[in-house]
Design goal:
Blueprint lengths: L5 H12 L17 E2 L10 H17 L3 H4 L7 H13 L6 E3 L3 H12 L3 H4 L1 H6 L7 E5 L4 H13 L4 H4 E4 L9 H7 L4 E7 L11 H10 L3 E5 L11 H4 L3 E4 L14 E4 L18 H4 L22 H16 L3 H22 L6 E2 L12 E4 L3 H10 L2 E2 L1 E3 L3 E4 L8 H21 L4 H5 L1
The structure holds pyridoxal-5'-phosphate.
């Protein structure tokens, strides 16, 4: 593969030189010889995350059952310890956050707790009063399949037909949501809405505060899937007055495959009985009473179900340490925007005429942590990129996602990736004359 053309690589070197976060790259194990741009699917292991897993394993080895009380910090409150450190990343207070479950199970838990299709029970009364019952959930057609599976199955469990009770906001361009279409979906029959803060394919970042305001003005509860934004985009969920949120920690938070997830429940909903109850959601001072009566914890930890998955919690401690040292998520966002701006600028210039379009919104306020390049041959280009030592990912139908992450990627990574992309597509275009068939199948 060719090396980057001199001008972008010189600029990259200058940007890397001036980068206050450059020193954190050494904290991560990056696959050797590769440019890792897939941290929005699975962040890499850090030395700190590894050390915390080793520590918990050591405590288990040395203490056995006593680790629950004698480990440092004690396992019994480890989830709360971590939740307090996650809270600033999303703009919440610690009592509104629970570190538990997975993205999808947390969505199930939040729906079970907050979806209240009273209209389905009181339909006749409501209609008599000239009011439509609120028994519809709003989501969007672009969202990740698992969220939509959860919504469908949840409605079915409530005895509601998803064909009637799940309304999916349509995308005008197949990539983004239009604010007017979101607003229009909040009709009087809607009780609750679930939207992604950042679209997982196009990287579109929605205006959480404005949309939350519109939902509330229409009497709709709203929750945010922050899987593609936590750790990349600062959130102010309390300030936005969001009702709930949920996310994973294995993307921009680098907590490892299948790491524990997280959820946020605004304080005005604290004290509700959890929809899916278990002993770990019982008030800590009553948990070991082991009685049939469920006395929920007064905070978001009421939404815990069973024993915390501590080996999947431990790596997160390391990730959060690094983020705190780096100056918090605002510092990460500043570098993330610089990296993605540089990447888009290089894509515009170095890939001009090669069939690419930047498919993510351009404005800083409307994009998350990755760049989405559309190309009709996206799948094959992704395969070639991997062979050339760049790790991107492909999303249907025609998107190459490149996620330069602020803690471990450099501007040189961006320049190098674009140079390799240019070489791949130029070479393929050249060969097209001789191997037409191979390229179009
Ligand atoms: C990554 C992701 C998920 C994954 O769900 P898990 O339960 O963690 O496997 C769900 N929703 C969105 C939007 C995601 O980006």
């Amino acid at each position: 593969m060719s090396s980057p053309s001199p001008e972008p690589s010189r600029r990259a070197a200058a940007l890397d030189q001036a980068d206050p976060l450059a020193r954190f790259r050494a904290e991560f194990f990056l696959p050797s010889g590769q440019i890792y741009l897939d941290g929005n699917s699975l962040g890499p292991l850090s030395r700190r995350a590894e050390a915390h897993v080793q520590r918990v394993l050591g405590e288990w080895r040395a203490l056995g059952i006593n680790g629950w009380t004698d480990a440092v910090p004690p396992w019994i409150t480890l989830s709360e310890t971590v939740a307090a450190q996650v809270a600033p990343l999303i703009g919440a207070t610690p009592d509104e956050v629970a570190v538990t479950g997975s993205t999808t199970t947390n969505l199930h838990q939040l729906l079970a707790t907050l979806f209240d299709p009273c209209g389905s029970v009181l339909a006749r009364d409501s209609r008599d009063q000239g009011r439509s019952p609120r028994n519809v959930i709003v989501a969007d057609e672009l969202n990740f399949s698992s969220d939509l599976h959860a919504l469908h199955s949840h409605l079915r469990q409530r005895g509601l037909d998803p064909a009637r009770h799940l309304r999916l906001i349509k995308s005008r361009d197949g990539r983004t949501l239009h604010p007017a279409d979101i607003r229009a979906a909040f009709t009087p029959d809607v009780q609750l809405a679930v939207l992604p803060a950042v679209q997982f394919v196009s990287g579109q970042l929605l205006d959480l505060a404005a949309i939350t305001r519109e939902a509330h003005a229409a009497g709709v509860l709203i929750g945010w899937d922050c899987s593609h934004s936590i750790g990349a985009v600062p959130h102010t969920l309390d300030h936005a007055a969001a009702d709930f949120a949920f996310w994973c920690h294995y993307k921009y938070l680098n907590a490892g495959p299948g790491a524990v997830g997280g959820l946020y429940l605004n304080r005005r909903h604290l004290g509700r009985a959890p929809g899916l109850a278990g002993w770990w959601g019982v008030r800590p001072d009553r948990r070991f009473a082991l009685v049939a009566q469920h006395e929920p914890a007064p905070d978001a930890s009421a939404l815990h179900i069973g024993t915390p998955h501590l080996l999947s919690v431990a790596p997160l401690l390391g990730s959060l340490e690094i983020i705190a040292e780096a100056g918090g998520v605002a510092a990460l966002r500043a570098k993330s925007l610089a990296l993605t701006s540089f990447l888009m600028e290089l894509a515009d210039r170095e890939l001009a005429g090669l069939g690419f379009t930047v498919a993510n919104p351009r404005a800083d306020a409307e994009r998350g942590g990755h760049v989405a390049l559309a190309h009709p041959e996206a799948w094959r280009i992704c395969q070639a990129l991997k062979a050339a030592g760049v790790v991107p990912d492909f999303r249907r139908p025609d998107i190459i996602r490149l996620a330069p992450a602020p803690l471990y990627n450099s501007f040189a990574d961006c320049a190098d990736a674009i140079a390799r992309l240019q070489t791949i597509v130029r070479t393929a275009a050249h060969e097209k004359f001789s191997t037409q068939r191979a390229l179009v199948t």
